[in-house]
């Protein structure tokens, strides 16, 4: 019965999903993060598992239950997410990068809580750029030789078609999934626009669960 409702289009495949925000520490009690809920990535991990894939889910800090039979690895920072992804990508053949990775992190992390000091100026934050997890893995020999299929995401607040078309090429991925953010963050539904080498087409507004299932079929068709 289950196989009737969920065709095993990803049987024999291993998908790695990055999800949620990252958290970049300033000191032991403070940090920089964003409003990603992780819902889309978790829905994709669940749908992939239901479609027969082995699924590894690398998640930043989110308040979500781990989907059944999905291996979950919790991380905080972009660097930790990259390290975990590089460790687990070796056995995966599909990467879906939904994480809202912080583009920058504080250049230094204080080991003690930074105290107010009326004698000094307020602290200034200096940033350095984080590694690009998707671009790093998409440029790996396994991705370049077709053994790893990479799917990117992009939340754009404007010019979705123009920005996402360029982003797909810049990231070097065959499929990039765009959505109009940040209004989608934390919501239970979404609209997805799929960009590939042929152009783009829209998956109309639906629950993230439904969209995840549709996206799994789109990915399976392209493998
Ligand atoms: N991504 C990533 N590592 C980063 C930044 C982004 O893996 N350090 C991934 C995201 O998970 C997503 C894709 O790259 O799949 C696009 O992320 P996005 O933030 O839209 O693109 P950026 O290249 O960071 O460009 P910008 O934020 O300036 O639009
Ligand atoms: Ca970014």
UniProtKB/TrEMBL annotation:
One GO location term (cellular component): phosphopantothenoylcysteine decarboxylase complex
DNA/pantothenate metabolism flavoprotein C-terminal domain location: 10-221
An individual GO BP term: coenzyme A biosynthetic process
GO molecular function: FMN binding; metal ion binding; phosphopantothenate--cysteine ligase activity; phosphopantothenoylcysteine decarboxylase activity
Enzyme nomenclature, EC number: 4.1.1.36, 6.3.2.5
Binding-site list for CTP: 103, 113, 131-134, 153, 167, 171
UniProt superkingdom: Bacteria
Keyword Phosphoprotein: no
Cofactor remark: Binds 1 FMN per subunit.
Biochemical pathway: Cofactor biosynthesis; coenzyme A biosynthesis; CoA from (R)-pantothenate: step 2/5; Cofactor biosynthesis; coenzyme A biosynthesis; CoA from (R)-pantothenate: step 3/5
Catalytic activity: (R)-4'-phosphopantothenate + L-cysteine + CTP = N-[(R)-4-phosphopantothenoyl]-L-cysteine + CMP + diphosphate + H(+); N-[(R)-4-phosphopantothenoyl]-L-cysteine + H(+) = (R)-4'-phosphopantetheine + CO2
Cofactor(s) needed: Mg(2+); FMN
Alphabetically ordered keywords of this record: Decarboxylase, Flavoprotein, FMN, Ligase, Lyase, Magnesium, Metal-binding, Multifunctional enzyme
Chain residue ranges for the region called Phosphopantothenate--cysteine ligase: 15-223
Keyword Cell membrane carried by entry: no
Family: In the C-terminal section; belongs to the PPC synthetase family. In the N-terminal section; belongs to the HFCD (homo-oligomeric flavin containing Cys decarboxylase) superfamily.
Role this protein plays: Catalyzes two sequential steps in the biosynthesis of coenzyme A. In the first step cysteine is conjugated to 4'-phosphopantothenate to form 4-phosphopantothenoylcysteine. In the second step the latter compound is decarboxylated to form 4'-phosphopantotheine. Catalyzes two steps in the biosynthesis of coenzyme A. In the first step cysteine is conjugated to 4'-phosphopantothenate to form 4-phosphopantothenoylcysteine, in the latter compound is decarboxylated to form 4'-phosphopantotheine.
Identification of the protein by name: Coenzyme A biosynthesis bifunctional protein CoaBC
Organism of provenance: Lampropedia hyalina DSM 16112
Residues of the full protein shown: 217 to 439 of 439
